[in-house]
């Protein structure tokens, strides 16, 4: 088969990477189109995946509209050139309309219910839409639900084993506690109008967490000068090793919050989007990720977790229980792709 992966976010690289490697090894012809957002291109290069960059992320609503039009034309031309048997992506807002016009099957994976534009540009045109079983919306007869989360596709122990040496290279001693703060840029189409930490709460979080251990900040947006000493400088493709050994994650990043929970790290998510995504509802029921719309409350709960010396061990037990209840998501992705050419 000829398979085109459309990659628009760092998390998409991780989600598809093991499936891409398996499909390549099975003799399939793989093409990748990419969007320049955050560390997406760095990740593709670190894994040795050749790609064609079709657009870059702008700022503001109007730049997103302009990018959509430009990327649709670029995808149209690429699909006509590559002639794939199937095109797949997370989200699908870019691929679904073009594939419908060109009569190429489009296979979409999504776990984000609050993307309003999907109602108009993805759901009516996609050949198949795969969602976690906990997805809050019914997308109709073309929706396939599976028992799992996107992050299991690359953080399942069958695919990922954390390396303590990567943490040691950051100068963190074996018995030293450390915490990860994550700030996002809030410039994605589905993030416009939403919020997390105020600048005052960012500063307060650094100061309070710093009383109990080392603080590292991961940020999409440019950091103020006073936060630069805390910047986490690990290469993007090694980030999950650091998350796995952290004593706490607290931040605005939804993907990283889920990754922390799936890795067994106490996780606190801060966003006005709380309550809109089924995976966070389910992960909170499993006591792996706790979500707060107010940063003050999130910080208070984070302090409770830090002061509980058994929280990390409890999270690992819950994580193992969660994994036992879910499928091998990468194998599910491979199966869906290999059968997708028959879709209309």
Tell me what the structure shows.
- The protein has 344 residues and is an alpha/beta fold.
- Helix content is 40%, strand content 18%.
- The protein is built from 14 helices and 12 strands.
- The strands form 2 sheets. It has a 7-stranded parallel sheet, sandwiched between helices. It has a 5-stranded parallel sheet with strand order 9-8-10-11-12, sandwiched between helices.
- Strand 11 (267-270), helix 11 (278-285) and strand 12 (289-292) form a beta-alpha-beta unit.
- The radius of gyration is 20 Å and the shape is globular.
- Mean pLDDT is 92; it is low at 186-195.
Tally of strands:
12
C-alpha geometry:
globular
User: Order of SSEs, N→C?
Assistant: EHEHEHEHEHEEHHEHEHEHEHEHHH
Question: How many separate helices?
Answer: 14
Mean pLDDT: 92
Sheet of most strands: 7 strands, parallel
Strand order of the largest sheet: 3-2-1-4-5-6-7
Radius of gyration, taken over Cα atoms and rounded to an integer in Å: 20 Å
Low-confidence stretches: 186-195
Structural class: alpha/beta
Helix content: 40-55%
How big a fraction of the residues is strand?
A: 15-25%
What distinguishing features does this structure have?
344 residues, alpha/beta, 14 helices
Topology:
Layout lengths: L1 E6 L2 H16 L3 E8 L3 H7 L5 E5 L4 H22 L3 E5 L4 H8 L3 E4 L8 H4 L6 E5 L10 E4 L5 H4 L8 H5 L9 E6 L15 H11 L4 E6 L19 H7 L2 E4 L2 H10 L3 E4 L7 H8 L3 E4 L2 H13 L3 H14 L4 H10 L6
Helix pairs in contact: 1-2, 1-14, 3-4, 8-12
């Amino acid at each position: 088969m000829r398979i085109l992966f459309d990659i628009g976010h760092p998390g998409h690289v991780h989600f598809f990477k093991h499936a891409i490697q398996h499909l390549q090894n099975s003799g399939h012809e793989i093409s990748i189109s990419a969007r320049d957002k955050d560390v997406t291109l760095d990740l593709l290069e670190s894994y040795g995946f050749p790609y064609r960059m079709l657009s870059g992320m702008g700022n503001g609503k109007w730049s997103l509209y302009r990018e959509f039009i430009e990327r649709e034309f670029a995808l149209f031309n690429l699909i006509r050139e590559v002639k794939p048997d199937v095109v797949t992506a997370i989200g699908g807002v870019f691929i679904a309309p073009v594939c419908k016009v060109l009569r190429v099957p489009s296979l979409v994976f999504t776990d984000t219910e609050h993307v309003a534009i999907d109602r108009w540009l993805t759901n009516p045109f996609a050949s198949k839409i795969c969602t976690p079983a906990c997805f809050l919306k019914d997308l109709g007869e073309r929706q396939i639900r599976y028992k799992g989360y996107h992050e299991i596709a690359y953080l399942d122990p069958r695919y990922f084993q954390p390396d303590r040496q990567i943490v040691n290279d950051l100068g963190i001693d074996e018995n030293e506690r450390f915490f990860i703060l994550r700030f996002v840029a809030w410039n994605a189409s589905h993030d416009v109008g939403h919020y997390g930490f105020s600048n005052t709460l960012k500063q307060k979080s650094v100061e309070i967490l710093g009383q109990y251990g080392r603080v590292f900040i991961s940020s999409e947006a440019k950091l103020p000068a006073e936060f630069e000493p805390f910047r986490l400088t690990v290469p993007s493709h090694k980030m999950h090793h650091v998350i796995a050994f952290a004593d706490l994650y607290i931040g605005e990043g939804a993907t990283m919050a889920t990754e922390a929970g799936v890795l067994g790290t106490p996780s606190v998510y801060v966003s006005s989007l709380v309550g809109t995504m089924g995976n966070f509802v389910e992960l909170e029921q499993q006591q792996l990720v706790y979500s707060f719309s107010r940063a003050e409350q999130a910080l208070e709960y984070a302090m409770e977790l830090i002061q509980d010396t058994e929280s990390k061990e409890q999270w690992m037990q819950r994580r193992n229980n969660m994994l036992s209840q879910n499928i091998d998501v990468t194998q599910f992705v491979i199966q869906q792709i290999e059968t997708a050419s028959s879709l209309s």
